[in-house]
């Protein structure tokens, strides 16, 4: 039997910078993500969100999403985003929206960590981070570089990602 939800009842949460689920990321991304909001900890099932920390020289490999949209807001660091072969410089305050099927690549070209807030809708990005990463305890030192799991393509396909272009980095 389903539980009734009072859609008119106020709901809120405040999540501090190190209070979400934190996950180390494999090469070439390294760094970590902190998952803050998902349908598992809020009454909304249309999105998930969190932050990602991308160290200098690291990148998020080219990919796209067949079923999802992704929104980034950069609040620290500098870099570049490539979206469908167009290159954009990104700085604090940049907002980037990747719609379905838009292949994209993000790289930290600066000398400090790039930090961005992400929103993924419908939710699922947290499942990707969990599948390829390792649990992180806030404050611990970054682990040695580690590769993606051997079954990464199965995970990739299961999440309905758009594959990188043949000449992607």
Task: Name the features.
169 residues, mainly beta, Jelly Rolls, seven-stranded antiparallel beta sheet, five-stranded antiparallel beta sheet, 2 helices, 12 strands
Provide a quick synopsis of the model.
With 169 residues, this protein is mainly beta. Helices cover 9% and strands 37% of the residues.
Structural write-up:
With 169 residues, the protein is mainly beta. Strand 6 and strand 7 (86-90) form a beta hairpin. It has one domain: Sandwich (Jelly Rolls), CATH 2.60.120. It has helices at 125-132, 152-158, and strands at residues 21-24, 32-37, 48-54, 59-65, 69-76, 79-83, 86-90, 95-98, 104-108, 114-121, 134-135, 161-162. It has a 7-stranded antiparallel beta sheet with strand order 8-5-10-3-2-1-11, covered by helices on one side. It is globular. The chain contains 2 helices and 12 strands.
Count of individual helical segments: 2
Summarize the helix and strand pattern as letters. EEEEEEEEEEHEHE
Q: What name does CATH use for the topology?
A: Jelly Rolls
Whole-Å distance between the termini?
A: 50 Å
**Structural domain count:** 1
Helix content: under 10%
Describe the SSE topology.
Layout: E1 21-24, E2 32-37, E3 48-54, E4 59-65, E5 69-76, E6 79-83, E7 86-90, E8 95-98, E9 104-108, E10 114-121, H1 125-132, E11 134-135, H2 152-158, E12 161-162
Antiparallel strand pairs: 1-2, 1-11, 2-3, 3-10, 4-9, 4-12, 5-8, 5-10, 6-7, 6-9
